[in-house]
Amino acid sequence: MNLHSKLPDVGTTIFTRMSALAREHGAINLSQGFPDFPAPEGLRQALARHALEGHNQYAPMIGEAALREQVALQLQNFRGVAADPTEEITIVPGATEGLFCAIMALVGRDDEVILLDPSYDSYEPAVRLAGGRAVHVPLNNRDFSVDWERVTGALSPRSRMIVINSPHNPTGAVLSHSDLETLQALAEQHDLLVVSDEVYEHLVFDGARHHSVLQYPALRARSVAVYSFGKTYGVTGWKTGYCVAPAAITAELRKVHQFNCFVGVTPVQLALADFMAAEPAYPAALPAFYQAKRDLLQRALAPSRFRLRPSPGTYFQLLDYGAISDEPDHQLCERWTREHGVASIPISIFYQAPPQQHFLRLCFAKQDEQLLRAAEVLCRI
Ligand SMILES: Cc1ncc(COP(=O)(O)O)c(C=O)c1O
C-alpha cells in the first residue's frame, strides 16, 4: 500500500499522552487544560432537559439561533462589540475545529502564516494541511511578549496570515492594548489576515483586561476571533465554541465547516443558550475564581526550588526547574509523572526551535486540595 502521510512528523498530542500517563500511574493530573470540578449544575440540567425533550436532531449549520444571539449579547456586554448573529457568528464543535476551518478557508498553497512560539499545537498542522507554510517567530524569552520587530522581519510577499493567542497557552502571557495597536498597523500595512485564539478571554487576573481583535476596527475587518464554551463554562468535553468574523470571511469559513463537521451538537448548544440567558454575568466571576487558585498554588510552591513565572492570564502556571535538573523537559515530565505522581506539560513541544530553558506547565483549574497535594510533592523535589 502506498500510504503517503500528509503529517509524517506528527504524533499523538502531548495532552493526550500526559493525561494517559497520569491515569496509568494514578498521578495528580495538572497536565491537560480542563477543570476537575463539576460544571455549573444549571448548565448540566439544561443539557439533560434538552436531550430528554427530544432536541436531538441536526442543528442549523451555522449554529442554533438562540446560542448565536446569546453570543452576540455577551460580546456587546463584555467587549462593547457588535456582531451580527446571522452573518458573523458561527457555532463550531470546539475552538479547534473553528481554528482549523479558519485556516483551511483562508490559507492557500505556499501562503506563509506567522506563528508565535511557543504556539498551541493545532495551528501548524492546520497550516500545512491547507498547503501553507508556517513561519515561526519566538516570543521574547524573558517575559513571553511579542517581538514585533522580529515579526516584521519575518514577513515576506507570501505572508498571508498571523495567528495570535491571548491570553496565551502555555505561558499565561496577555497581549496589551499597545500590542493590538501594533498588530493592527502591521496587518493593514502588509494586508494580513489574523486568526485570534481567544479561548481564555475571561481568564485575566490582577484587574487587567482582555483586549480582543474585535475591539480594533481595522483588525475586526480582517480577523477571525475563536472562542471556546468549554473553557468559559468548564465543559471542555462538550467540544463547543464559536468564531466571529466579518460576513465575507464568515461565508468562507462556513464553506469548510459544513463539509468538515457540518454542525455542532444540538442539545449542547441549546443548554449553553439557556444558561447564558439565565446567568449572563457568569464569566465576570471567573477572574476572581481562577486567580484564587493561581495564588493558592503560587503560595504553596513558594518554599520549593522552582522559580515561578508570572501568570497574568489563562489557567496555567509555568515553573522553571533549572535549579533542580538539566534533564530535557519532555523526559522530566514523564519521569516525574511516574516517580512523583504529578503530571505536567513540557514547554519545548510548543516550539519549532526550543530555546535553552527548563519550563513545565501546570494547570491550576483543579480542586484546591489537588493543587495543595501536588505542591506538597513538588516542594519535596
Ligand atoms: C490556546 C487554545 N486554543 C484552542 C483550544 C481548543 O479548545 P476546544 O477544546 O474548544 O477545541 C485550547 C484547548 O486547550 C487552547 O488551549
Automatic annotation (TrEMBL):
Q: Which UniProt keywords apply?
A: Aminotransferase, Pyridoxal phosphate, Transferase
Q: Which GO terms describe its cellular component?
A: cytoplasm
- Looking at the keywords, is Transport present? no
- Domain of life of the native organism: Bacteria
Q: Which GO terms describe its molecular function?
A: kynurenine-oxoglutarate transaminase activity; pyridoxal phosphate binding
Required cofactor names: pyridoxal 5'-phosphate
Domain Aminotransferase class I/classII large, by residue range, is 28-377
Sequence similarity: Belongs to the class-I pyridoxal-phosphate-dependent aminotransferase family.
Q: What is the recorded name of this protein?
A: Aminotransferase class I/II-fold pyridoxal phosphate-dependent enzyme
| Source organism | Parahaliea aestuarii
